[in-house]
Amino acid sequence: MPMHRVASLADLRQDRGIEVEAGERKILLVRHGEEVRAYQAECPHAGAPLADGAVCNGHLICPWHKAEFAISDGHLCEPPALDALTRYPLQIVDDQIHVDDQAMQTQRTLLPDDPRCFIVIGAGAAGTAAACALREKGFNGRLLLMDRETTPGYDRTALSKFVLSADMGPDDTPPLREDAFYAENRIERIQGEVMKLDVVNKRLTLADGRRFDYDAALITTGGEPRALPLLGADLAQVLTLRSRDDAKKILTAATPGKQALIVGDSFIGLEAASALRKHGVNVTVLARHEVPFAAQLGERIGKAIRSLHEQNGVLFRTHVDVSRFESDADSQDRNLKIAVLNNGERLPVDLALIGIGVTPSTQFIDGLELEKDGSLAVDSGMKAGKDLWAAGDIATFPINGQPQRIEHWRLAQQHARIAASNMLGEDKHYTDVPFFWTFHFGKRLDYLGHADEWDEIVYLGEPETFEFLALICKQGVVAAVVGCQHERELALLAERMKQPLFKDEALMLINRLSDCA
Question: For residue 446, what are the CA distances in angstroms to 63, 205, 323, 449, 456?
């Protein structure tokens, strides 16, 4: 195919890529030192335009979900993407850049035949990322992926954000990998419920009696939503949200005009409130806090989020709890009708959604001491014991010198890639930056880092307008950043915050990006 002249060297920037067209194909051009690289223009994870992201420390960072790729060859450095970037041939003639619209072919290097058997227990975000990483890194032994669900892993974050609003069907939630991928990469998906993991004898037993011996195992079973131990909590319309089936049950009960009670002001709980209101459901939230998310995002941002919900018809109730749920006494169907509060008030409800956090799913582990919250303590390489690793919601790991358990989707995948490397004999450690995003009434907020406490929050813009950046600082160092409608700045900081970042330097970097926009 002929080369297409797409740009001149003078068009390129050091801090970002630019999008061009080669024939009918969109291409991203990005500087690599004195050289130029050409890659696919959209992130392989969710199709974000990579030209809206940033370049920092030799990495190209996606603007939406902060996947990172090496500028040198496009290989994957940080999830949630699971694939490297497709690269295109490029020539420079008299400062003019010419690109071929036919992708370069890549060769995957396999390690020698490997007699070992690796087991990944849990096939959600972390488990799927680990299985992909093991094959990506050349593991050529037997690879078993234990899955309690019949269908392959999918993007659970879409359930509370888009499925409950009816913007996306439950069965349309994006799969993490298509079915064919597992067969092509010799990943054995084994459906079943885990009964016991014998850590001492390195043996996994399923509830149906099947047993599997392993050489190395990674536990990625995540968390189970906490239930309320109340009278009536077993009614069909008292639900939690973890799976597609849960979402289907919620949508069946919460048709437009119905009354939904959300117990708890967690991120999932308030995302569900936003989604259900868009779907035309009347929503009341029993909140634990006067200001939601104040402990994570600060008082001002929390107040802005609560105000946004209230402007859209969500009713908040604080200082009350549910005492019991009641059904229609005249019906044999035992449908939920009333939530009785601890002050004696009786609320008519058609659906109760419980959003009070999760409990680590580790009850099947035998031979390893658990933390008080049921999680597994791991080191910075995600190792939990001899030939055993853990990742995601079940892992308490060291961050900033303190043991933490953080329930973030992308963080679970970061853990998984580190664990996969170390299962193959590498010596990788967690030095990354946690990231999550939350979505309320069309407003997307990104959160970078982790801050349990702070002594200053620097605001650029107004949280109340939902166009701002907030630098959460302790002793002059940026511990976390919250932002809305500042995707490029957040992409840059996602990489830069891997080393200590002082407030003044952060402000300089942000201003430089703004000046060059």
Answer: 10, 40, 35, 10, 19
pTM, two decimals, is 0.94
Name residue 471's beta-bridge partners.
Answer: 458, 481
User: Position of tokens 């609320």?
Assistant: 347
Residues 415/438, Cβ–Cβ less than 8 Å: no
In the chain, the percentage of residues whose pLDDT exceeds 90 is: 92
What residues does 460 pair with on adjacent strands? 469
Nearest by Cα to 63 from 46, 77, 75, 87? 46
* Bridge pairing between strands 35-40 and 194-198: unpaired
What dihedral angle (degrees, nearest 10) is formed by the CA atoms of 280, 281, 282, 287? Answer: -120
3-class SS letters over 56-95: ECCEEECCCCCCEEECCCCCEEECCCCCCCCECCEEEECC
Classify 219 as helix, strand or coil: strand
Token reading at 495: 């990489």
Contact 391, 412 (CB under 8 A): yes
494 to 11, 436, 459: CA distances (angstroms) = 25, 11, 18
310 Cβ contact list (under 8 Å, min separation 6): 316
Three-state DSSP state, 496: helix
The token duo for 68 is 């990172």
Q: Is 489 helix (H, G, I), strand (E, B) or coil?
A: helix
Identify the pLDDT of residue 334: 82
Structural contact between residues 66 and 410, judged by C-beta atoms closer than 8 angstroms: yes
Averaged over successive runs of 10 residues, the pLDDT of the chain (517 residues) comes to: 88 95 95 95 97 97 98 97 97 95 82 91 97 95 95 94 94 94 96 97 97 98 93 95 95 95 96 96 97 97 98 97 88 85 96 95 96 96 97 95 93 98 97 96 97 96 98 97 97 96 96 75
3-state secondary structure of 345: coil
**Cα(first)–Cα(last) distance of the chain, in Å?**
35
Question: What is the residue-wise DSSP string for 99-140?
Answer: EESSPPP--PPPPSP---EEEEE--SHHHHHHHHHHHHTT--
Q: Provide long-range contacts, Cβ within 8 A and 24+ apart, for 133-136.
A: 133/416, 133/417, 133/420, 133/421, 134/420, 134/423, 134/424, 135/185, 135/186, 135/187, 136/76, 136/108
With H, G, I as helix, E, B as strand and everything else as coil, classify residue 261. Answer: strand
Between CA 482 and CA 486, with CA 483 as vertex, the angle to 5 degrees is 150
- 17 within 8 A of 55, measured Cβ to Cβ: yes
